[in-house]
Amino acid sequence: MTGYLLRRAAGALAVLLVLSIVVYATFYIAPGDPARLACGPRCNPEQIAQVRAQLSLGDPVYVQYWHFLQGIVAGHDYSTGTAVLHCDAPCFGLSYQNNQQVTDMLIERLPATASLAVGAMAVALLLGTATGLLSALRRGGITERVLTWLTLAGTATPVFISGLGLLMLFCAYLAWLPFPTYVPLTDDPEQWAWNMLLPWAALGLLESAKYARLMRSSTLETLAEDHIRTFRAYGVAERKLVTRHALRGAVAPVVALSAADFGSMFGGAVLTEMMFGLPGIGALLVHATTTLDLPVVVAVVMVTGTAVVVANIVADVLYAAADRRVALR
């Protein structure tokens, strides 16, 4: 297992290095002038030249990339014209719009995105695994047909449709819940939970359909294995057979996929954040893209990519823990 973890960690570092090269080349070496974007449309050539010198854009490309990596790992010093501003690692630079450290902007937005990702994943796992397991155990009956159609409908329904339907039903028609307004967990945990219920449900329902289909197929595959048939031939009760022997093998792919999906939620839940007004990383990315705030875009892409890579490592470890044969490959 130790060797397996070391191999996965080395592979993750290589992937992150390649990601940093691609991101830097895409946003900083592509056609365009970062100095003009950072300075603004009203800057004269002298001001643009000053900004270019402050950003070290006159250095060779490999030197600029090295400074980019150095800032992420060890921080960087930026000259604002009147003072030198130190940016602690991980440092992604200063925003072109407000001259604020991008890292501080990400830290400010991270709790909202983390709240959405954790809650939506919990809803997706609970609902998806229960639905998939019930559909597999009721194979061939009316219950399986109904659940199969529901999961297909859930997969085909965009999040803005399900979110709008939940808002109209629970906020406008039934008036059971207030229209969501993000409240930090540290300020009021009860209001935080009440205002996050609909975003969790909108994104969780969409994801649960995928887990339901995976859980159903995985359960049917596990129940058809030889050792399960042997236990059944010896008279082991069906409930005990499922809960003690079949469930662990069936749920392993679901756990592995959920760990990988959790990382992608940090940057992929843009529509949900925009619809419910959540001040998260996805909404920050949309705003930075429309204003061409390159440091913010680069930072969000790097953070999201890192989250996906780390989540995939966690998924591999969880799968290896469930199936010891994986760790030996």
What distinguishing features does this structure have?
single chain, membrane, BPD_transp_1_N, 329 residues, two-stranded antiparallel ribbon, ABC transporter permease, mainly alpha, MetI-like
Describe the structure.
The protein is mainly alpha-helical and 329 residues long. The protein has a two-stranded antiparallel sheet. Strand 1 and strand 2 form a beta hairpin. The radius of gyration is 24 Å and the shape is globular. Keywords: Cell membrane, Membrane, Transmembrane, Transmembrane helix, Transport.
Poorly predicted runs = none
- Into which percent range does the helicity of residues fall? over 70%
Largest sheet: 2 strands, antiparallel
Order of helices and strands: HHHHEEHHHHHHHHHH
Beta strands, count: 2
The count of helical stretches stands at 14
Radius of gyration: 24 Å
* End-to-end CA span: 10 Å
Strand order of the largest sheet: 1-2
Mean pLDDT: 79
Share of residues in strands: under 5%
Apparent shape: globular
Find the structural class using helix and strand composition.
Answer: mainly alpha
InterPro entries: BPD_transp_1_N, MetI-like, MetI-like_sf
Transmembrane segments: 12-30, 114-137, 149-176, 192-209, 296-322
Membrane topology: Multi-pass membrane protein
Protein name: ABC transporter permease
